[in-house]
Each structure stands twice: as structure tokens, then as C-alpha cells.
């Protein structure tokens, strides 16, 4: 479809090569030819392929619903400028910037991303990005393991359940013991409880705002980490919160990591997103993946280049700090262009709008008979609401009315069947909130009547 | 260089983008809030100039020939981009109920099926985010499988010396001891050496086929049989799959597990180093261990399935690099099997054509025809003139051609690994060969001229040693208000 060869060219190229035919040149060794008809859809002309894929996209009703879903993937305004500049072909179709002279654009953009992440988290150094928040958590835990060598991790149960599930996947294969800390009635983690958390550990992992939306007592996590002689690892699944909350560094974290999808990346049914990881200077050599540093060229001109590659797999092979090869360069670029476009003024204004809309939503939902806010704890743009009927049933009733009502916590916490995690962002309108609250009120009374 | 963003802008510039909701202190206690947010404020035109200028300092497939071995820098069709921009995909939340995501789920399901057929496996997971992520996923699957069957003591991973660095790094992450297998004079794995290393401790043998020398491992069935007899598993690194699509299948060769790089073989743009997508395929024995959720079809409806008790669990937060998979699906659907096979054939044709055009000036250490890529060596040139493979690569940059992969695999000294891909015209290949030959001639006449290259790129050769020493101390890796880059 996109190959340029004419029959004449193929013939003359085969002559130069000295091969009888295209098939002979590329055939596998005898016995390995494909002997079955492959069950792959037949080729479509490009115009038909476009229509075929568009028809599938149009089937996704949920993409058009009024949404109060967050839970680690957030619907935010994406200024058109962001996609326009970030997806220029010169960025989109380039490779990893191993050749510094041919990649200054990508390299400088990564250096700028690293700086933004440091400014947002308060940390000294950041890498060039990771696959997503969950894998960033795994890499942060591995950094702590390399620093302490105990293969024991303490993690709050209020860390995103998918992040914890991913950590468990890796921990099982790597022989790491994972100790989970309980969450209290106020929606925050018990960092002072002694169960299992008094022995030495590589790190204590805390997420703030946590999965329930509650702003955690990160200093308490840092204190527990100190008692266990481990590092304090801070997770942020909603990076926009970093615009207003105290930085992980100020709160005592050694490693700050998380998910930066909120900075200009679409929901995209879960990816690609962009993980970040940053730390204090003393751990720089334990950072996974790529790092860009500033230097000069032979003429003394400012230049950027990949550095500390001695940590990486293509040099160290089995002794590398991580097996990571690619990062999420394009996603990190999108986030960088987003941050450049909105600036501190825009980011603060957008964060405030999230705070405001979430409180309007909380007010509207708390006004429904039988509804209440689940936790008396400060939150950013999402929170749990207690419902008088099973949250999963309510959500499914509301879905039929065109609302993505939020995440019923029973999906991950079977004991919390009456809690619904809801989110409002700067894109949530007053009309959305009013319509949603009215529908929730009606559906609740229908559900109660049916019992 | 252009200024950094942090050296541009001015306080008070910029915009707020949303209606005013007041300061954060209206909503949260001051004790929770950061004192300031020291990000630059720029006008949108400043942002436009900045990133447009940066983009001009990059080589890219849309502007430059990019014969980067093992990276498959083929053209990225723009249909892919249009498909990935449909709102039904971009605005879809991963936690939305399956009933509202039937289009996305159907696309994922169709892609799982297509890859399963094309590579001869039983099932594919589209969850892994990149090739290296696929590798660690597969190692976790292998380890869990051995634990389940009471053979958890198997802890050796055999890897040819031509393998990608990610292979040993991924194996080491699950605690496997890596044992390298030498290559023969024919550039293939030494089967006898391999067999001597097989035993009760063999867990996995990881191979790339064609290997990174661009040669088909013609003893592959012998290898997979021997590893299976020893009780081990065979893992296929799909980095070089662009040579084989529609021609032969790893499943038929005897591989139990594999990963693909949708950003190589299936034309997802590389994006300057990600996001990739690294689906993992498994045969019948290993399929229950695939990460979940998988996408299933039941009575015409599609759903995320979490049902396998033996799954290793999820390997990232959500279900896939979905928008990358959409791009790859677009590529599959406009080609069909015949088009995909044709692409592989033409990739092999282009590589052999360049090989034939340069082999009299740069030694090609293996006689056989290559597959989609080949390696040549500047060792003789270096002995004669002091000019290295690195210098030739830098010389190519001055001609607007991206450098080939260099100094890897290590078995060939002063190695250049060249992969033209199928989307390049004969004229581009002729131009590349002429440029490379010209550089070799120049090296012989004027070696210092080569060592001074590149002259015309946005920066010239950079000081890597200094930045490395600084970076070790955590310095020079970011800009700061006090000291500029610190």
C-alpha cells in the first residue's frame, strides 16, 4: 500500500543482488513456509478502512456520555495548540535521540520535561518518562530495593488498586514481599499502626490524593519510612494536584512518581499515558530509563545529550538498573507543550476550577436524601459518596440515562459496596452536575422502591 | 540553541483557559498548599516558535532516510493518525462499562486475532507498553509457569551474544542467571554450544529471528526442539519481525512466547522514543499466564475478561496502549495478509540491494543474502585511515541521512547495522549507497575531514564525558532559576 517499487525497479534490483525472484530472496528455510490460510481480515482500500475504523469508534457510546469517572484517568481540557505543535512530523516520526546531532529538538524537549517534573515535585532530578503511573511505581520500588536490598515493600491500600495489582505482578516474579496498610474511616492510611510495618523495608508507598480522593498525611508516611529505614515513595495519579498541593519533596518523599496523563493526553481508553519519576540527588544513579543532560558541542554551543547510559540495558545488559528501552517521549512532549502553553497562571486556574467543580458536585450529591460524603477529609477533584443503594446498581441505572456515574468501589474493595468514587474537572459544567444529581435522586428512589 | 522554556516568558503573561474560580486557598487549608508554582508563563506564539524551532532540529522519517538497524524506521501512514484521533477512541474512559466501549473492544479483539494468526500463536495480550515491557511480561509468565509445575528451580536464561540488551536485562529482573551463547562464523547461534548449556536449570532461551545480523537462524527448529527436550521454553524477540510477516511464523518454528513491536513492524510512529506497544503472544501451554484483562467475544458482544486464574496479573494500569494499537490495526486492515507479506519481501529486497551496493567498500562479514537488515564493518578502513564507523555515521548526518545503528551487535567490529525498510524508493537507496561510498573515499583521502563531521547539523559532536561526570552528581539534568542548568 505504501511501498514505492515498480515492477521494473524490482527486476533491476534483483539483478544487482543476483537473486532470481522476490519470493526466493525472502523465503524461509524449507519446512517453515506457512501452510495454512491465515485468519486475517482481507485488505480494505484506504477509504474503506477509514470508514470501517470510524464506524467502530462511533460505536463507543461511553465516549459521548456525561462523565464523572476519574480514578486514575482524567478528562481535562486540551488546548488545540498542544496537539498542533507536539505532533509535528519532525517529532512524531523520529527515533530515540541516540544521535545527539540529529535529535536536539527531542533532547531539549526531554530536558524541559525533566525540569517541569522537578519543579512540580520539588525533586532534584527526573528521568525522561516511563510507560505510566503503575509501571513508574514498580520502577520506584525497584530503585528503593537497589538502595536497601530488603525485598520488602510497605504500601497503602489507598494506592490505586491497578497500580498495586501491577506491583504485585512484578513482586511475585521478583520475590518482593508486599505489606499493605489499612485505610481508616476518614479515608486516609494508618501509617502509625504497627501491624507488619515495624520491620525494616525498602520503602513506604503513599498516594496523595489517594484512590478515594483524600489528601494523605504524607509526612506520616515519611516518618514510618524512617522507622523502617526505608525510602518514602510518593505517588500522584492526578498530576494536576501537584499544581496546588505541597510538593512531595516538602512532605518528606525521597522518590516522587506518578501519572501525568492530565497534562494534555486524551483518555484514549487507557493509553498511551505518561509516567514520571523524580528523586533526590543521592539516588540519581538508580533512576531507570533515559536521562538527558546539558552540555556543549565542539564549538562551545549549548547542546543536550543522553547521559548516564552506563545504567541502561543497551550498555549494561543484565546488570542494568532496569530493562527499559523506550520511554514515552511523544507523550512527555505533549505534556511539556501542555505545561508551556498553560503556564503557571493557566495551571493554577485550571486546578482551582477542579477544586470548585468538585465541591459543587459534592454539594449537589450530598443534598440527595440518603447520600453523604464518605470521608471528612480534604480532597482535590474527586471524592467518595455514600449511596443508600448499592453503588454499582446506581451506576448502571445512571449509565442507561447517559451518565458515567463514577467508579463503584466494590470493583476493587468488596466491603465498600455503598461507595461511589466521583470526579469533576474544569470540563464539568453546572448543567452536568444539576442533571446528574437529579437523575441520581430519581434512580435512587426507583432502586429503593424496587427493593 | 534556542532558549529553554524557562528562560522565556514573563510573569503576568499567558492566559487562564477556564473561567475564574479564585485561588486554591478558597477551597483548601493553606497548610496543604504549595507556596508558589515556578513555571514559566508564555504567550501562545512564543510556545509556537519554541517548539517549531525545536522540531527543525530533529531528523525524522518524514524528512530523512533513516536506515537505523533493528529499529524498522518505515513510513508511518497518516491513516493511522486519523484513526487514532477519532473521538470515539480519544474520549473513551478505561473504566467505562464494556457495553459503552464495544467499538474499542472489537478493535482490540480483532487485533488479538490477527496477530495470533500472523504469528502462529494461541492468544495475544495487547497490554505491554513496549518491547522491553513485553519481554519482562513474558519472563514473568515463564517464571510463574515453572513455579506452577514445580520446576521453579529453573533459573538460567540462554541468550545469543547478538541479542538486544533488553533480553538479558529482562531475564535478570526475574532473577534469571544469563548465560550468553556464542555465534558461529556463519553469524548464527552455535547450536552445539547451546546444547552443551542445556540442562535441568534451563528456564528460557531468548532468540531474535532473523537475528540482529539480519540472518535467518536456519537451525531454529533444531534449537527449539533441543530446548523443549531440556524442559525449557523458547522466547521470540519480535524486534526483527518485519522480515517475516506472512512468510513464516514463530509458532511454527517452535516458540512458546513472543513479543512484537507494533512501533516497528506495524508502522506506529516511534515518537522520538515512545510510546511503543509490545504485545505478547503465547502458545496453548503459556496462554493462561498472559496478563489480563484480555478481550473476549461472546454472542457478538465484546468484553474485558479477567477470568484466568493463572494469569500473572496486569502489567500496566490500563488495558493497552490503545491509541497505538488503533494505528497498528489501521496498518493491518489496509494491507491484509498479502500486503503484509509483500512489505516483508520488499524490506528484504531493499536491504539486499543496499548490501550489494556497498559491500565492496565496507566488508560484509557473512556471505548469505540478508533478510531485512545487514551489518557491514569499517574495521579495514579504521586500520588504514583511523576513520571509524562512528565517523562515517556522523558524515551521513551531514548528508541529511540518519546514522545506521553502530557498534552492535558486538560480534562484528566497527559495525554499521543498516535497515532501509520497504517504504524507501530505489532512488533513495542509490543515493544512500553513493553517499556512503563517497564518505569512504573521502576517509581515504582526507581522514580528518571525516573526524570533523558533522558540520551542518544544529549542533556538532557533543561533549558526553563532561555531562556524564556532572550527571553522576545529579547536576546538569535540569534547569534551575539560580544557576540555569544545574
Would you spell out the secondary-structure blueprint of this structure?
The complex is a heterodimer of chains A (451) and B (486).
Chain A: H1 7-17, H2 22-26, H3 46-58, E1 66-67, H4 80-86, H5 89-92, H6 104-121, E2 125-126, H7 133-148, E3 152-156, H8 161-174, E4 177-181, E5 203-207, H9 218-227, E6 231-236, E7 255-259, E8 275-279, E9 292-296, E10 302-306, H10 313-316, H11 329-366, E11 372-373, E12 382-386, H12 391-400, E13 403-404, E14 407-408, E15 419-423, H13 430-450
Parallel strand pairs in A: 1-13, 3-4, 3-5, 5-6, 6-7
Antiparallel strand pairs in A: 2-8, 7-8, 9-10, 11-12, 12-15, 14-15
Helix pairs in contact in A: 4-11, 6-11, 7-8, 11-13, 12-13
Chain B: H1 44-55, H2 78-84, H3 87-90, H4 102-119, E1 123-125, H5 131-148, E2 156-160, H6 166-173, E3 177-181, H7 191-197, E4 202-208, H8 220-229, E5 233-238, H9 250-253, E6 257-260, E7 280-282, E8 294-298, E9 301-305, H10 322-358, E10 374-377, H11 379-385, H12 389-398, E11 405-406, E12 415-418, H13 426-445, H14 447-451, H15 464-472, E13 479-480, E14 484-485
Parallel strand pairs in B: 2-3, 2-4, 4-5, 5-6
Antiparallel strand pairs in B: 1-7, 6-7, 8-9, 10-12, 11-12, 13-14
Radius of gyration of chain A: 25 Å
CATH architect. name of the largest domain in chain B: 3-Layer(aba) Sandwich
Q: Give the C-level CATH assignment of the largest domain in chain A.
A: Alpha Beta
Mean of residue pLDDT values of chain B: 96
Order of strands, widest sheet of chain B: 1-7-6-5-4-2-3
Helix content of chain B: 25-40%
On the 0-100 scale, what is the average pLDDT of chain A?
Answer: 96
Radius of gyration of chain B: 25 Å
Number of domains of chain B: 3
Shape of chain B: globular
Q: Give the helix/strand class of chain A.
A: alpha/beta
Could you give the distance between the termini of chain B?
A: 17 Å
Specify which chain pair forms the largest interface: A-B, 199 and 206 residues
Percentage of residues in DSSP E strands of chain A: 5-15%
Helical fraction of chain A equals 25-40%
Which percent range describes the beta-strand content of chain B? 5-15%
Shape of chain A: globular
Amino acid at each position: 500500500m505504501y511501498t514505492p517499487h515498480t515492477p521494473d525497479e524490482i527486476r533491476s534490483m534483483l539483478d544487482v543482488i543476483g537473486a532470481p525472484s522476490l519470493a526466493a530472496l525472502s523465503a524461509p528455510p524449507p519446512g517453515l513456509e506457512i501452510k495454512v490460510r491465515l485468519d486475517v481480515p482481507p485488505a480494505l482500500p484506504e477509504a474503506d478502512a477509514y470508514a470501517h475504523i470510524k464506524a467502530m469508534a462511533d460505536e463507543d457510546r461511553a465516549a459521548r456520555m456525561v462523565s464523572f469517572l476519574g480514578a486514575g484517568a482524567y478528562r481535562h481540557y486540551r488546548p488545540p495548540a498542544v496537539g498542533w505543535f507536539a505532533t509535528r512530523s519532525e517529532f512524531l516520526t523520529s527515533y530515540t535521540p541516540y544521535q545527539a546531532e540529529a535529535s536536539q529538538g527531542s533532547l531539549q524537549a526531554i530536558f524541559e520535561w525533566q525540569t517541569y517534573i522537578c519543579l512540580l515535585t520539588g525533586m532534584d532530578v527526573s528521568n525522561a518518562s516511563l510507560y505510566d503511573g503503575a509501571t513508574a511505581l514498580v520502577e520506584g520500588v525497584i530503585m528503593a530495593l537497589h538502595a536497601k536490598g530488603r525485598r520488602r515493600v510497605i504500601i497503602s491500600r489507598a494506592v490505586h488498586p491497578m497500580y498495586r495489582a501491577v506491583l504485585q505482578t512484578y513482586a511475585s516474579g521478583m520475590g518482593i514481599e508486599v505489606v499493605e496498610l489499612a485505610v481508616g474511616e476518614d479515608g486516609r492510611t494508618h501509617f502509625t499502626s504497627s501491624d507488619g510495618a515495624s520491620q525494616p523495608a525498602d520503602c513506604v508507598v503513599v498516594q496523595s490524593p489517594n484512590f478515594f480522593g483524600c489528601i494523605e498525611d504524607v509526612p506520616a508516611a515519611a516518618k514510618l519510612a524512617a522507622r523502617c529505614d526505608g525510602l518514602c515513595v510518593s505517588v500522584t495519579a492526578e498530576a494536576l494536584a501537584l499544581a496546588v498541593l505541597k510538593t512531595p519533596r516538602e512532605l518528606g518523599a525521597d522518590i516522587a512518581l506518578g501519572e501525568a496523563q492530565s497534562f494534555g493526553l486524551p483518555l484514549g481508553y487507557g493509553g498511551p499515558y505518561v509516567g514520571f519519576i523524580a528523586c533526590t540527588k543521592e539516588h540519581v544513579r538508580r533512576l531507570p530509563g533515559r536521562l538527558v543532560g546539558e552540555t556543549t558541542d565542539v564549538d562551545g554551543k549549548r547542546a543536550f545529550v543522553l547521559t548516564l547510559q552506563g545504567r541502561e540495558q543497551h550498555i549494561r545488559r543484565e546488570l542494568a538498573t532496569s530493562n527499559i528501552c523506550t520511554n514515552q517521549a511523544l507523550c512527555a512532549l505533549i505534556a511539556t507543550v501542555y505545561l508551556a502553553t498553560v503556564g503557571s497562571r493557566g495551571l493554577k486556574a485550571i486546578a482551582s476550577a477542579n477544586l470548585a467543580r468538585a465541591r459543587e458536585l459534592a454539594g449537589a450529591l450530598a443534598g440527595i436524601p440518603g447520600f453523604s460524603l464518605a470521608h471528612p477529609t480534604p480532597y482535590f477533584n474527586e471524592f467518595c459518596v455514600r449511596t443508600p443503594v448499592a453503588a454499582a446498581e446506581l451506576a448502571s441505572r445512571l449509565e442507561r440515562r447517559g451518565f458515567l456515574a463514577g467508579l463503584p468501589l466494590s470493583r476493587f474493595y468488596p466491603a465498600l459496596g455503598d461507595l461511589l468514587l466521583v470526579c469533576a474537572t474544569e470540563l464539568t459544567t453546572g448543567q452536568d452536575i444539576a442533571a446528574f444529581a437529579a437523575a441520581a435522586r430519581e434512580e435512587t428512589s426507583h432502586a429503593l422502591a424496587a427493593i | 540553541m534556542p532558549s529553554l522554556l524557562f528562560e522565556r516568558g514573563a510573569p503576568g503573561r499567558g492566559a487562564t483557559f477556564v473561567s475564574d474560580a479564585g485561588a486554591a486557598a478558597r477551597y483548601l487549608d493553606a497548610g496543604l498548599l504549595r507556596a508558589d508554582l515556578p513555571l514559566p508563563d508564555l504567550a501562545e506564539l512564543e510556545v509556537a516558535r519554541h517548539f517549531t524551532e525545536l522540531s527543525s532540529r530533529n531528523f525524522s522519517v518524514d524528512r530523512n532516510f533513516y536506515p537505523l538497524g533493528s529499529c524498522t524506521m518505515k513510513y508511518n501512514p497518516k491513516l493511522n493518525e486519523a484513526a487514532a484521533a477519532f473521538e470515539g477512541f480519544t474520549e473513551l474512559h478505561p473504566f467505562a462499562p464494556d457495553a459503552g466501549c464495544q467499538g474499542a473492544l472489537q478493535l482490540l479483539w480483532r487485533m488479538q486475532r490477527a496477530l495470533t494468526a500472523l504469528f502462529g500463536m494461541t492468544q495475544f495480550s495487547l497490554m505491554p507498553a513496549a518491547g522491553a515491557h513485553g519481554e519482562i511480561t513474558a519472563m514473568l509468565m515463564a517464571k510463574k509457569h515453572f513455579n506452577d509445575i514445580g520446576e521453579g528451580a529453573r533459573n538460567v536464561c540462554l541468550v545469543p551474544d547478538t541479542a538486544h540488551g533488553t533480553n538479558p536485562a529482562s531475564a535478570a529482573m526475574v532473577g534469571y542467571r544469563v548465560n550468553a551463547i556464542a555465534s558461529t562464523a556463519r553469524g548464527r547461534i552455535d547450536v552445539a554450544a547451546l546444547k552443551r548449556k542445556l540442562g535441568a536449570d534451563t528456564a528460557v532461551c531468548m532468540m531474535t529471528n532473523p537475528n540482529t545480523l539480519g540472518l535467518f537462524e536456519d537451525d531454529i527448529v533444531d534449537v527449539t526442539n533441543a530446548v523443549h527436550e531440556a524442559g525449557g521454553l523458547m522466547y521470540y524477540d519480535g524486534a526483527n519481525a518485519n522480515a517475516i510477516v506472512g512468510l513464516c511464523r514463530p509458532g511454527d518454528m517452535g516458540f512458546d512466547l513472543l513479543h512484537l513491536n507494533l512501533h516497528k513492524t506495524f508502522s506506529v510512529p516511534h515518537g522520538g522514543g515512545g510510546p511503543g506497544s509490545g504485545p505478547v503472544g503465547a502458545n496453548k501451554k503459556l496462554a493462561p499466564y498472559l496478563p489480563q484483562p484480555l478481550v473476549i467475544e461472546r454472542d457478538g458482544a465484546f468484553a474485558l475478561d479477567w477470568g484466568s486464574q493463572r494469569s500473572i496479573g496486569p502489567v500496566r494500569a490500563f488495558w493497552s496502549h490503545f491509541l497505538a494499537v488503533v494505528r497498528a490495526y489501521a496498518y493491518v486492515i489496509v494491507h491484509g495478509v498479502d500486503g503484509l507479506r509483500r512489505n516483508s519481501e520488499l524490506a528484504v529486497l531493499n536491504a539486499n540491494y543496499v548490501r550489494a551496493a556497498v559491500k565492496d567498500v565496507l566488508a560484509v562479514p557473512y556471505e548469505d543474502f540478508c533478510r531485512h537488515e545487514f551489518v557491514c564493518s569499517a574495521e579495514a578502513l579504521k586500520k588504514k585511515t583511523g576513520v571509524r564507523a562512528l565517523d562515517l555515521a556522523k558524515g551521513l548526518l551531514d548528508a541529511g541521512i540518519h546514522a545506521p545503528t553502530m557498534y552492535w551487535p558486538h560480534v562484528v567490529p566497527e559495525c554499521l547495522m543498516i535497515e532501509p525498510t520497504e517504504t524507501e524508493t530505489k532512488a533513495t537507496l542509490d543515493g544512500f549507497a553513493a553517499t556512503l561510498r563517497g564518505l569512504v573515499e573521502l576517509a581515504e583521502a582526507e581522514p580528518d575531514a571525516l573526524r570533523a563531521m558533522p558540520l551542518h547539523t544544529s549542533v556538532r559532536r557533543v561533549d558526553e564525558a563532561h555531562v556524564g561526570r556532572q550527571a553522576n552528581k545529579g547536576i546538569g539534568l535540569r534547569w534551575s532559576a539560580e544557576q540555569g542548568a544545574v
